[in-house]
From TrEMBL:
Protein name per Swiss-Prot or TrEMBL: Thiamine-phosphate synthase
Gene that this polypeptide is encoded by: thiE
Domain ThiD2 residues, every copy: 33-151
E.C. numbers: 2.5.1.3
Superkingdom of this protein's organism: Bacteria
Length: 367
């Protein structure tokens, strides 16, 4: 015979009951406590995610899936499991990780809570097998649903932010790469592409990792030029592919449905093909000839007007655009602009970002 203490809720205080327990009963109590704690943990984590889906994203479908999962979990939270609770005696409640106290962004908050929910569901799946024959399979299925929820939520957020983005900074090699990008982010930039055609992969990995962290800390999207492998390696939001780069279908297979794929286009055929192949956005240009892309002929303002009338997905005009001519491309129908030199060579990237955005924000978006 063993002794075990527990918290008696009926007296509303800490009462250590000393009762005779068999070894089997003692183990059962421990299993019940594990189930009770993890049922709470999974539901709390889902509630935190649900609040963002509801109030942050205003997305009824994602909110409903969180709610449905919470309700399915609640069904398993029986009175006998609740009765096994032993909060004052649980040393684990005092343990917090320093990272739990600090979150750098909503994204990291959501990721931490998805992690928490998935861990709790895994515990419920394993220990649940000792409680009821249906509990293990039920929680396994819920765990997979939470993976799908996470992927859908992250993909939805990316697409929403892409739709809201009017200005796109494509970087060029620079001594002050991070400082320039940060200055532009401070001005309200929400979309950045890392483009370095000559650096070796060690430097690309290092710079792309730092830029991804920087962009995400400002809530901005981070895209990699040309390289799907690099995009995956640094957990970027997507990749930008030219006509000579990897086909969209293969990139999609590698990146999955939730990351963004952009495609460069210089004419109507390339535009239609990019849309048919499932690009999330297109580059339209070069509108003007530019030293950043030597030898590439200008597509001109006519192609901008064509895109305005025909593109069913977000499109960014690119090539030679600056504060002096931005209103010409806007007049031709552009609502979104991508630039390299205008920001990378600006003395005050924050001010230039604010100016370009102020011009673009005068037009109402179609998509
Ligand atoms: C937004 C955007 N549009 C077009 C391009 C050009 O891509 P690509 O034709 O592959 O040329 P490189 O940039 O790889 O030299 C782009 N990068 N971004
Ligand atoms: C990468 C690219 N693709 C078409 S034009 C261009 C470069 C645009 O650079 P800038 O904004 O300095 O003219
Ligand atoms: Mg390319």
């Amino acid at each position: 015979m063993k002794e075990a203490g527990y918290y008696d809720e009926s007296t509303n205080g800490v009462v250590v009951m000393v009762e005779p327990y068999s070894q089997k009963e003692l183990i059962q109590q421990v299993v019940y406590r594990i189930l009770d704690a993890n049922l709470d943990r999974a539901r709390e984590g889902l509630r935190i995610i649900e609040e963002w889906c509801r109030f942050g994203l205003n997305n009824a479908q994602l909110s409903a899936e969180c709610k449905q999962l919470r309700q399915e979990i609640a069904i398993w939270h029986t009175a006998e499991l609740r009765a096994a609770r032993n909060t004052p005696g649980d040393r684990g409640t005092e343990l917090t990780h320093p990272q739990e106290e600090q979150r750098s962004s909503v994204k990291s908050l959501l990721q931490a809570n998805f992690c928490r929910v998935q861990e709790a569901l895994r515990v419920l799946e394993e220990y649940g097998k000792l409680y009821h024959p249906n509990m293990g399979p039920a929680f396994k299925q819920m765990r997979y649903r939470v993976y799908t929820l996470e992927s859908n939520l992250m993909g939805y957020q990316r697409h929403q932010l892409l739709l809201r983005s009017r200005l796109y900074l494509v970087t060029s090699p620079s001594e002050s790469l991070l400082a320039t990008v940060e200055a532009a982010l401070k001005g309200g930039l929400t979309l950045v592409q890392y483009r370095d055609k000559t650096a070796d992969d060690t430097l690309r990995l290092e710079q792309a990792t730092k830029l991804r962290q920087l962009c995400h800390s400002y809530g901005a999207l981070f895209i990699i030029n040309d390289r799907v492998d690099l995009a995956l390696a640094v957990d970027a939001d997507g990749v930008h592919l030219g006509q000579q780069d990897m086909p969209i279908a293969i990139a999609r297979q590698l990146l999955g449905p939730q990351r963004l794929i952009g495609r460069s286009t210089t004419n109507s055929d390339e535009m239609q093909q990019a849309i048919t192949e499932g690009a999330d956005y297109i580059g339209v240009g070069p509108v003007y000839e530019t030293p950043t892309k030597v030898g590439k002929a200008a597509a001109g303002l006519e192609y901008v007007s064509y895109a305005a009338a025909n593109s069913s997905i977000p499109w960014f005009v690119i090539g030679g655009i600056d504060a002096n001519n931005i209103n010409d491309v806007i007049d031709a129908g552009a609502e979104r602009v991508a630039v390299v030199r205008s920001l990378m060579q600006a003395e005050q990237p924050t001010l230039v970002t604010q100016y370009l955005l102020s011009q673009l924000n005068r037009v109402k978006p179609e998509t």
